[in-house]
Amino acid sequence: MTTKPPMAKKVAHTMELFGDVRVDNYYWLRDDTRSSPEVLSYLQQENAYTQSLMSTTKKFEDEVYAEIRGRIKEDDVSAPVRRGPYYYYSRTLKGKEYVQHCRRLLPNADAPPSVHDTMPTGPDAPQEHIILDENLKAQSHDYYRIGAFKVSPNNKLVAYAEDTKGDEIYTVYVIDAETGASVDKPLVAVTAYLQWAGDGNLVYITMDEILRPHKAWLHKLGTEQSSDTCLYHEKDDTFSLDLQGSESKKFLFVASESKNTRFNFYLDVSNPEDGLKVVTPRVDGIDTFVSHRGDHFFIQRRSDEFFNSELVACPLHDTSATTLLLPHRESVKIQDIQLFNDHLVVYEREKGLPNVTIYGLPDVGEPLKSLQGGHTVDFIDPIYSVQSSESQFNSSILRFYYSSMKTPPSVYDYDMKTGISVLKKIETVLGGFNASNYVTERKWANAPDGTQIPLSIVYHKDLVKLDGSDPLLLYGYGSYEACIDPSFKASLLSLLDRGFIYVIAHIRGGGEMGRQWYENGKLLKKKNTFSDFIACAEYLIENKYCSKEKLCIDGRSAGGLLIGAVLNMRPDLFKAAVAGVPFVDVLTTMLDPTIPLTTSEWEEWGDPRKEEFYFYMKSYSPVDNVKEQNYPDILVTAGLNDPRVLYSEPAKFVAKLRDLKTDDNLLLFKCELGAGHFSKSGRFEKLQEDAFIYAFIMKALNMIPDLGSEQK
């Protein structure tokens, strides 16, 4: 057994800026080739140490894994999507890690869509056709992910983007949808931004050497990639490109965006050789998203003044002549819009929850004016998550995804004319799951500056005492305006059914409470994110949801930065912490523009080449603030091929903690040597990671039962 933790050697690397000297003893752990024998050997030693210390709980971990996997209906199909004369869907098979992409003909393609439509599957039904089986493709790879799967407008071809390393650099293949035969040479070294422009052309985006999406290309099938037309090159390294298709299927939109500015071009798919034309110009601080219906572009527009966005429309031929459709509201944020021929669906946020509001539109060709009298879709849970889904533009049927912390992922079709909604699919949860056993709540914690921070809480009503003795897992993210809405995660039942309370802290830096929630948790206000999280932890202790001795915390990526920061600030407050692929070497990374994401992230964290930002970022950067003090039990994970958070950041954090911390608590580092930012790619492999994390948490809490030969 490897019981002695690996101690990384120290090689002083001195960095000086603004008269401030920092010494990084573990800078040598960064190897961009990911092939240094010394670095790989150290990572392998850390993995061996982790495996050794967790070997006593391996039996329990396997039991939890079997339990999590046992809840899954392994052979299943997704809710079919109607496109042209076909239903498209994905199928999972018993024991298989990946999906099959399938389709079958509609029995009556001329019938108008209805919320009551179901895909026939019996012996007399049109036959299922498997377009692509990811299980076959993944056989020769440790990692396999399809980032885009796009069917041509005439339904004859499929273009898909494939990543076999986890580094998010894709190869695009074009195949015949019926025979699976290759019909074009692969497009190499591209992103997963991919759209058809008619039946014979593809538009795609490539990245520069720092993995910034910077060029949009038009590819004509049957020609060499080297002769593709560059539609746009974004030279400003704080901007990245995005590619979307309109719901009407008439236009593609290429956008260039930074963290606070976004402008758009359109491409007419009937004449792609005409190239891009401007819809919204580049204006610093103005952020626009564009869609299309009839003879108008619809533009969601955000600025410093209209921070929660307004909605305007303009004629296709005169993009400067805008009509206000929905005004800006201080308490309601326009998150997204979805257009139909006769309806507009607005995804909004109010009081920390998503809403879906539907407006009727005048006939195409009639003038557009301010929208009135929208109706809102009602949801059953007090806290929930709702997301848009592909719907048919020419129908009146809205499809959306719904879930809550106790309602499994559900797909609904909603008739916007009648208000009738039909559940098309709800994820099957095996193993005796009963939603009525669980309670979900929304509570509010007081931040140090008086701001009320929303918390989403779930627990099993018969298994908690709510007297401070219950174990609790608190999750947080709090960056990039991301909304971590309360949704269902079946693997969490393995904690809830053991008496855990699970809580999401909707801290500033996220977008749950609108744009200003984000603005007040970034740049020189970033520390609000951390103090909000600490305030949430203290609220849960004060209100008898748990005690310090039972409080565990979890965060990934930018949420891993959160975990690293609060561990340095208040290590006494937590019993155990999980930091997944954590962004912990903030200052050093943000000073290095050769690292992927750095340049585009200066508007999120600040540019430390400026003195004010340098010292502010240094004051919270986890690697720079590890000190001689007691820390709780900690598990840190990384992915060797991760392009978003270099594996060396968590590696350095762990090495420095090992050197300085003054306790004997667990400190484990697990680096996946064949994966990237999103860990392993198979659906069961991902569950194994959940089981490992839960086993670590239960070990830290001394809750592992005696399984025969096991140690407690």
From TrEMBL:
Enzyme class (EC, first level): hydrolase
GO molecular function: serine-type endopeptidase activity
InterPro entries linked to this entry: AB_hydrolase_fold, Pept_S9A_N, Peptidase_S9_cat, Peptidase_S9A, Serine_Peptidase_S9A
Limits of the Peptidase S9A N-terminal domain: 5-424
Catalytic activity: Hydrolysis of Pro-|-Xaa >> Ala-|-Xaa in oligopeptides
GO cellular component: cytosol
Keyword Nucleotidyltransferase set for record: no
Protein family membership: Belongs to the peptidase S9A family.
Function: Serine peptidase whose precise substrate specificity remains unclear. Does not cleave peptides after a arginine or lysine residue. Regulates trans-Golgi network morphology and sorting by regulating the membrane binding of the AP-1 complex. May play a role in the regulation of synaptic vesicle exocytosis.
Name this protein carries in UniProt: Prolyl endopeptidase
